[in-house]
Amino acid sequence: MRKKLMSLLLIGTMTTLLFTGCGGGSSEKETSKSNTQTAGTYKAKDLNGRTIKIGIWWDEYWDSDYKTLEDVEADGGSFSNADIMQMKLDKVAEIEKKWNCKIDWVNLGWDGIKDSINTSVTAGTPDCDIYLTDLQFGISPVVNGYVQKISDYAPKESDILNDQNVLTRFELLGSDDYLFHESSAIPTGAMYMAYNAQVIDKLGLEAPEKLAEKGEWTWDKFEEYAKKCTQDTDGDGKVDMYGYGTVWTSTVQGFCASNNAEIASTSKEGLSDTKTVEALNFIDKLYNVDKVARPYEEDWDNNQLAFSSGKVAFTFAQPWLLIQESGNHDFDMRICPAPTGPSGDGKMTPSILTNNYMIPVGVEDATSVYEVFEELMNWYNGDTTYRDDPEYFESAFVDSDQVELATKLGNLANNDLWTSIDSAGAVNKVFYANIVNKESTVSQAVESYKQILQDELDSMKIK
Q1: Angle separating helix axes 366-377 and 82-99, nearest 10 degrees
Q2: What pTM value is reported for the model?
Q3: What is the Cα–Cα distance from 314 to 217, expressed in whole angstroms?
């Protein structure tokens, strides 16, 4: 058989944490609804049997190779919902008949898709009509002029230029005219501050989300809570419960967003911005002055799982981590807004980074390719309840109030792409120079490394 089953982790991989983050990163735009037509109602064009190839790095089982659920299973495929899989297969058949074309999800593999982009796309002869990209390898073709503009091929009445119910444009360094991803009403990739409710209750402290409702959940209040949570719980003279802790990327993302700071959302580096410096100084205070943040270790999992193992009271986490660790603790994991910094307004959360599609330069009749793809991705025929199944997302939270809060906060995601852009590690160097190695102040570290990030951004100016 042509395809073999590969499991796809939509969220929860290291890539998602660092670069996907994701996904993500999408900016909600005000769009005109007056010209919007129902997705999937384009006038068909005879494509003369053309195969629309979509390059990805895992196996999908709803294309022209499969007609029935039995076909999928015979080729080693699986599905969690037979009705939904059948809807997808039916949509493929409908498109084949309407457009006289074939659909092929091409599993190029992780290394293979990067190689295909670096060779065929740069040569102007793309192997595929559409590529799904991780931001690790999706930014470069955009900034080097190898990706067609959405506004050049999408019809003015298309979903993507209007309501974005099916496909959503992704904003990259001020432009949302190149990359796009499947729309979703559920912020699965959002990042939240989470806390150990048992510790907070035992200390007689008010729930942080209640303080936030009153405008009292600030950095100062968080610092107060973190100090009270930092304890020697077994009486051996050593601190074994800290007020805060997690991986360094989440720490920087979380506290920067809480102060309305963005490190790489425009062509100008934001590492030296006063709001970013404020956030980094606050992180320094938690770790090195108050010593209420758990000392940072080189073991990524050790830092990330400190919360679920009961070693820290507060953390930043995404839903996948809360779900993964749900059986590894004996306390309620609750979420709350991040405490508001002196320059923050409580209206910004860390970016949601996504995998994004692109249509490369060299693809012929990109308009028809887009129209077919929009119809394909609208396999649910406008009923997004089939697409946006909330069960997984909701399982991360302890009650309906927490789900409502999570959805609200997820809609406040900023567009800071530094985790995808900063390949030279400027932010990492600042964190380690100051927080871990204690060899410089925040200001000194920022001054030393800000140009590294600016050089990265300068190399990524969209042509």
Answers
A1: 150
A2: 0.81
A3: 13
Q: Which residues of 275-294 are buried (b: 16+ CB within 10 A; e: fewer)?
A: bbbbbbbbbbbbbeeebbbb
What's domain 192-348+399-458's superfamily in CATH? Periplasmic binding protein-like II (3.40.190.10)
Check pLDDT > 90 for residue 106: yes
Residues 435/296, Cβ–Cβ less than 8 Å: yes
Cα distances (Å, whole numbers) of residue 308 to 97, 240, 283, 406 = 52, 14, 21, 19
Residue 460: band (very low, low, confident or very high) from pLDDT cuts 50, 70, 90: confident
Return the percentage of the chain with pLDDT > 90, whole number.
82
Nearest Cα neighbor of 349 from 194, 222, 454, 196 is 194
Owner of token pair 């005109």: 32
The class (CATH top level) of 14-187+354-388 is: alpha beta
Q: What does DSSP say about strands 312-317 and 356-358: parallel, antiparallel, or unpaired?
A: unpaired
Closest CA to 414 of 264, 297, 278, 243: 264
Contacts 24+ apart (CB under 8 A), 435-443: 435/248, 435/283, 435/284, 435/287, 435/288, 435/296, 436/296, 438/288, 441/284, 442/277, 442/280, 442/281, 442/284, 443/277
In the DSSP assignment, the letter for residue 349 is B
* Residue 6 predicted with pLDDT over 90: no
Residue given tokens 């406008």 in the structure block: 382
Q: Which region, left, alpha or beta, applies to residue 323 given φ > 0 means left and ψ of -120 to 50 means alpha?
A: alpha
Domains of the chain by residue range: 14-187+354-388, 192-348+399-458
Q: What is the pLDDT of residues 230-269, one digit of tens each?
A: 999 999 999 999 999 999 999 999 999 999 999 999 889 9
| pLDDT per residue as tens digits for the range 416-433 | 999 988 989 999 999 999
Helix (H) or strand (E) holding 208, with range, is helix 208-213
192-348+399-458: same fold as 14-187+354-388?
yes
